[in-house]
Every structure is written in C-alpha cells, then in structure tokens.
Amino acid sequence: MFIETRLIASLSKDEDKLLTFPCKKAEMKKFSCLCVLIRKAKMLKIEETENLSDEELAKLTLENQDNFLYIIERYKLKLFNYVRRISDVCDEDAEDILQEVFLKVYLNMNDFDQDLKFSTWIYSIARNHTISSHRKRRARAEGYAIPIDDETVKNIMIELDAPKAIDEYFLQSNVQKILDKLESKYSEVLVLKFIEEKNYQEISDIIKKPMGTVASMINRAKKEFKKQLNGNVEMNH
Description:
By secondary structure, the chain is mainly α. It has eleven helices and two strands; from the N terminus they run ββααααααααααα. Helix content is 60%, strand content 8%.
C-alpha cells in the first residue's frame, strides 16, 4: 500500500509549491528527510544554481539533500516531455511516472557514476522506468500533439534531407504522429538524437547499446521516418 509523501517541487518568492510522491512504507525511512517543509535559508539560493553544471549540482545535493529540489526544477519539464514522447500515456499518467522517476533518482543519488554525465544518468532512469510502467497506463488520445520547437523541426528537415515540398508547419504537425507509428526502438533513438539533442555517446549510455549499434539504429530510424513522412505527404495531396 502506498503512502503519500510530499516534496517541494519548485520555489517561489511567496510560497513553497509541493509535489506529491507515492512512497512505499519500506522507503519512508530513506525519504523521511524530505517529508517536511524545507526552509529556503538552508538551501542554495536559486540564482546560485543557474551557472552550476548538473554534475556540480548533483555533488551539492549529496552534501545537502535539500538541493535536490533544484534538480527537480531543472529537469521536470524536460523529463515530462521525454516520458510523453517515448510512450503513449496520457498527461496524468506521465506526471505519475515522472514523480516515481524523481523518487528513484533521489533514492539512488549515492549510486550516481560520476564518470557519466548526470543528464545521461537521469535520462536512463526515466527511460527504464517509463518502459517498465507505461504498458499499465492509459494511452493518450489519438492525434495528441506534443509541441516541438521550430529549431528542432529545421534540424530534422536537414538531417532527413526532407523534400522541399514539405514545409516546416506540416512536419511540425506530423512529427509525433510519425514517431508513434515507428517501432519503439527507432522512435526512441530519434527522440534522443533530434529532440533531446543527445550525442551518440550519451544515447549509448542511456539505452545501454554500443555506439556502433546506436549509429545503425539511427540510420535505419531516419529511413523509416522519411518513408512514413513521404506517405503522409502523399495522403494529404
């Protein structure tokens, strides 16, 4: 049976905003240090974290767990969108998955391999937890669009050598639909490469595949994406 445990998720000048985490009884002791309202005076100030690298922030979190809240603040939107893009869950379930991911990250901070980038490590936890849990969740509505910025769309068009007849608006409107049609192993590497902007080494560390395999998967994924894209163009003409 789950116990609802509260954790400050973001900071405001006027009030502390709370994020709810489901926490098993067995985990309560480990997590109890974050079950009370944390006083801002004991933490780094928000402006002090802006120029810190992820690795520096992780180190400071190991010294004072209160600073974990800044890791949540830095990653909550990135990981929320990532969870939605690699699964078919609805927003509510994506939020649940994200809460569980942050709990796992917090409980495993001491196991962070400092030879890896922190972003690679946290994305790997998010990926593995999403894959293991999303089949139990409700699928999002068909045709639901996850926003992709203009710069990302331009990069995709260049990488895919997309036909000039395909305009950016059309691609922007259809990227998620096409990703949803691809095999998960292909959509996943495309999301990591073009949307999350991870390099081959980072993708290799996240999905636990050799870089040569990652390169082959991305090349194959690009071909499959382009095939689906051309099919969508033909259907709309």
